[in-house]
Design brief:
- With 562 residues, the chain is α/β, with parallel strands linked by helices.
- Strand 11, helix 20 and strand 12 form a beta-alpha-beta unit.
- The chain is built from 25 helices and 16 strands.
- It has two domains: 145 residues, 3-Layer(aba) Sandwich (Rossmann fold), CATH 3.40.50; 287 residues, Rossmann fold (3-Layer(aba) Sandwich), CATH 3.40.50.
Length: 562
């Protein structure tokens, strides 16, 4: 028997009746089992639920309607976030059904930009524990903490140390909202079974003094661990979770640059893991570039790239573009000559090598070109301008108009999150280029009407990439998550954008198709794993069918008392 089907029987659309040991109120308190008012009369009798819920049986479709009616009555986005998380805590099947049916409306709430606001207020809006907290004060006991988790099988862990939450900086333990949000997207977008996901906070302290003095802050109230002490704590965490769940996928999320790159280098060959800020961001950005080139009908090798920002996101994007350039026949060295990165000290140049972080050095340019972003754009004449700086408004009118002066269809990617940190808005990019710009942002912007034409800006959201990559890696039991998987995922994503979408300015496909996109990416990832001989299962005859059969579908399963 296929053990994956046995283990994940609830993934299947036509699963058998699910045996349930719990009874009465214990079922209602279990968000993975609770149906609220959706229990049929037969189950209410058999599972001793009769009288514990109102007598009327309500279908899941009608429950969705009730949730959305209440959601839309909320006065602000933070209240909407709290409303959805409350549902998440009591009925996960309904929660994910709501997300899937209203994915475009709700994604900005459960993730960027509103999740950033939720993280800032995490201790003040806290309601119920979710996930595991590995605190610095509990070092030496991490295996005990892991064994406290009730699930015997976990497929995916998303872990953060809260050091660089979106563009908001060090939020310490408040950053737990990020793993929770990411895993919600794994379930909604790729059908990972929610009971096999685990959000993790690696609480190494915080340097945010406001949090340390906040009586309602829930994390460790000391400055962050550093040096060997930090890496020893991460190692204890990795050892503990992989000892109990040897095949678990670990996604590193929102770590500062000084730890993101070293941790990825340390673990990517020995542990099934990746860093979404580096590899996922690189992949989704490359997909948007490839979509734009379908409009301009130019090869990747004819582009010039200027980056405002030179951290994990920038280098992750640059590395992924280099993969594409090598695919077109350039050497890695030739490819890197097409990049100009600007950090807080100016252009990344070889003359600065002694002061540069290791991840920047491969992109250090020769020469003595200096000056502002505007001056760099004026002299380099880039075709692609990428913002990962968290400097709101840095792509000002002068910069955008200068881009337009030397290229007919400039690609502007203002990728900093949340929306308040975006380098420019969609409306600005379109207006300052008379609608000629090809535009993508990290957080969503509404459509823009200019001279009677409606432009729909693309959102380069990592949710297009990481759920499918994770699903594929898990299903084929890959030994590693490789850069080639992310490169392939970028190409697959770009291919999903229709001609009609490109016509209105969209560089990414409709989010309503996210499940189909994730399935296609998962198939491509599996194919890479088989080609690289790191898959640990025999290749199925119909790989797409294999993937789709193992995706969780949020609908109520029939229960049988045992």
């Amino acid at each position: 028997m296929d053990t994956s089907i046995k283990r994940h029987h609830i993934y299947l659309k036509d699963e058998p009746v699910l045996p349930v040991k719990k009874r009465g109120a214990d079922i209602l308190r279990d968000p993975l089992l609770n149906k609220g008012t959706g229990f049929p009369d037969s189950e209410r009798d058999e599972l001793r639920i009769k009288g514990l819920v109102p007598p009327q049986v309500v279908s899941i479709d009608d429950q969705v309607q009730r949730v959305m009616e209440n959601y839309r009555r909320k006065s602000n986005d933070l209240e909407r976030y709290i409303h959805l998380e409350s549902l998440h805590d009591r009925n996960e099947t309904l929660y994910y059904r709501v997300l899937l049916e209203h994915i475009e409306e709700l994604t900005p709430i459960i993730y960027t930009p509103v999740v950033g606001q939720a993280c800032q207020h995490f201790g003040h809006i806290y309601r119920r524990a979710r996930g595991l907290y590995f605190a610095s004060s509990n070092r030496g006991y991490f295996k005990e903490i892991v064994n406290n988790w009730p699930e015997d099988e976990i497929d995916i862990i998303v872990v953060t140390d809260g050091s660089r939450i979106l563009g908001l900086g060090d939020l310490g333990s408040n950053g737990m909202g990020i793993p929770v949000g990411k895993l919600s997207l794994y379930v909604a977008c790729a059908g990972i079974y929610p009971g096999k996901t685990l959000p993790v906070m690696l609480d190494v302290g915080t340097n945010n003094q406001d949090l340390q003095s906040d009586i309602l802050y829930l994390g460790e109230k000391h400055n962050r661990l550093s040096g060997e002490e930090y890496y020893e704590m991460v190692e204890e965490f990795v050892d503990a979770v992989t000892a109990r769940w040897p095949k678990v996928l670990i996604q590193f999320e929102d770590f500062t640059n000084d730890h993101a790159f070293p941790l990825l280098e340390l673990y990517h060959k020995s542990v099934l893991c990746f860093n979404d800020d580096i590899q996922g961001t690189g992949s989704v950005a490359l997909a948007g570039i490839l979509s734009a080139l379908r409009v301009t009908e130019e090869p990747l090798s004819k582009q010039r790239f200027v980056f405002l920002g030179a951290g994990s996101a920038a280098v992750g994007i640059a590395n992924m573009i280099v993969s594409g350039l090598v695919d077109e026949g350039l050497s890695p060295e030739e490819a890197r000559e097409l990049f100009w990165l600007i950090d807080s000290q100016g252009l990344v140049l070889k003359s600065r090598t002694a002061e540069l972080a290791a991840h920047k050095i491969p992109y250090a340019q020769s020469g003595d070109l200096t000056g502002s972003l505007l001056e760099v754009v004026r002299q380099v004449k880039p075709t692609v301008l990428i913002g990962v700086s968290k400097q709101a408004g840095s792509f000002n009118e002068d910069v955008i108009r200068e881009m337009q002066s030397h290229v007919s269809r400039p690609l502007i990617m203002a990728l900093s999150n949340p929306t308040s940190k975006s380098e420019c808005t969609a409306e600005q990019a379109y207006r300052w280029t008379a609608g000629k710009a090809l535009y993508a942002s990290g957080s969503p912007f509404p459509p823009v009407t200019l001279a009677g034409k409606v432009f729909v800006p693309g959102q380069g959201n990592n949710m297009y990439i990481f759920p499918g990559v994770g699903l594929g890696a898990i299903l084929c039991h890959s030994g590693q998550v490789t850069n080639s998987m992310f490169y392939t995922a970028a190409k697959v994503l770009s291919e999903q954008v229709t001609f009609e979408e490109l016509e209105v300015g969209k560089l990414y496909p409709d989010l309503k198709t996210i499940r189909q996109i994730s399935a296609q990416i998962a198939v491509a990832v599996c194919e890479v794993a088989f080609e690289e001989k790191i898959a640990q299962i025999e290749r199925p005859l119909d790989l797409l069918k294999f993937v789709k059969q193992r995706m969780f579908h949020p609908h109520y399963v029939a229960f049988k008392a045992v």
